[in-house]
Amino acid sequence: MLGLPTEQPAKRGLASSVDEVFRSIAALMDELVLEVVKTRSSEEFNRVFRDTYPHYVRLLRSFSEIADATVPTQVMVRVTVESFNDLEKRFRSKKAEECFGPAMTERALFTVFSLRKIAPVLYSVVTSKRKLASCDAEKDRDFGRNFLVHALVARFSIDCLVVAMNHKKTIYPDVLDSLDSLMRAVVDAYAWVRQAAELRTDRQLIDRDAAFPPLESEDRQLLNESMKDLALGKN
Amino acid sequence: MIAGPTPPPPPPDVHPAEVYWVEIPKDHTVGHEQYDRRPYVVVSRAEVNRRGTVIGVPFTSVKDPSKMAQLPPYWISIPSAELKVDWGAHLQAVASLAKTDQIRVLDRDRLGSKIGTVSQSALLSIQLGIMFALDIE
User: Fold this and answer.
1) Partner residue opposite B121 with nearest CB, options A106, A114, A195
2) Where are the alpha helices (DSSP H) in B21-119?
3) Is residue A2 part of a domain?
């Protein structure tokens, strides 16, 4: 869902009817985002954001559900990658820096980079067939909720920048600051999805060294001797 | 069996997410490199750390939250709740920034007293900052 193109959905491999639906939803999302982009102060931004964001999330969910039902996974993966490439290219352009200044452009590039990192982890989570223990299932729900909250907000702020560029709208400094703090959520989104992914593997994140207990000197000697034996071809 | 001098005990294991005081004298650095006494979070694996060096990222405190937008995105914000200070460290956790572009190899002898541990979530966020700073795809 995070990599779904809201800008150029007409990519190779999408049926024209699906493409048309995507375009319509993308146009509606653009309209909502534009309302937020046009605000001039942080107070106004907060007010408009509160009004429009729930609709944006609903549209994004529809977008995602239609994609899930109609687009083959391989095509979706390719479209997602292309979408991130496209976003990155736009934020690396001179135009982006002229519109938002170097600090915000760097923040946008970092956000796209992070969303790109999130995509395969998210894919591994949603396609995992591993059954979670009940205590893990509860943690998983928690991770999932937190991930969605943070990831969608980050994606929304990226969309704000893209829509501003498309419509040649200047974003007021107060609003840019608000978008900056929303974009910071992408770091948390990454952390939440990674933790959800870790629940589905045997690897522990911080205690990963537990599998490598320190060797006592006697054990080390034994190990050295057996390695020597192995090297010399002894049994 | 002949009794000899007792060998010194091996240094305790250093784990990722642990935070230590590290002092880098100013005359060991040039230009924009970090110096002074700072908390460093260990980001290298425990297996790597057993070889005598660790890889750490320095923390800096958030002086003016209103200027956060001007800071690089790969300086990862660590809220105070994400740092668990060890009992006996006599410190209060404060909101910090992990400067992932100042990642540094540290000899284990450089590690001072242990301050505490950052949360798993904070460590993962710092890893993301490092990936961006080092352009790891």
Assistant:
1) A195
2) 46-49
3) no
Whether residues A191 and B121 touch (CB distance < 8 A) is answered with yes
In chain A, the number of structural domains is: 1
**Chain segment A120-174, per-residue pLDDT in tens:** 999 899 888 888 888 889 999 999 999 999 999 999 999 999 999 999 999 999 9
ipTM score assigned to the predicted complex: 0.86
Q: Does A108 have pLDDT greater than 90?
A: yes
Do B72 and B33 contact (CB within 8 A), yes or no?
A: no
At CB < 8 Å, which residues of chain A contact B? 103-104, 106-107, 109-111, 113-114, 117, 176-177, 180-181, 183-184, 187-188, 190-192, 194-195, 205-209, 212, 214
What is the span of the domain harbouring residue A109?
A: 7-231
Which of B42, B75, B125, B127 to mutate against chain A (most A CBs within 10 Å)? Answer: B125
**Is residue A162 one of the residues assigned to a domain?**
yes
Letter string b/e over residues A119-132, b meaning 16 or more CB atoms within 10 A of that residue's CB: bebbbebeeeeeee
For residue A209, give both structure tokens: 């060294």
Neighbouring-strand partners of residue B117 = B18, B84
Q: Is residue A1 part of a domain?
A: no
Question: pTM for the whole thing?
Answer: 0.83
Contact (Cβ atoms closer than 8 angstroms) between residue B118 and residue B82? yes
**Tokens of residue A166, six digits:** 């498309």
By C-alpha distance, the chain B residue nearest A216 is B10
Pick the residue from chain B with its C-alpha nearest to A104.
Answer: B69
* Residue B103 clears pLDDT 90, i.e. is over it: yes
pLDDT in tens, B22-34: 999 988 888 988 8
> Considering the domain boundaries, does residue A150 fall inside one?
yes
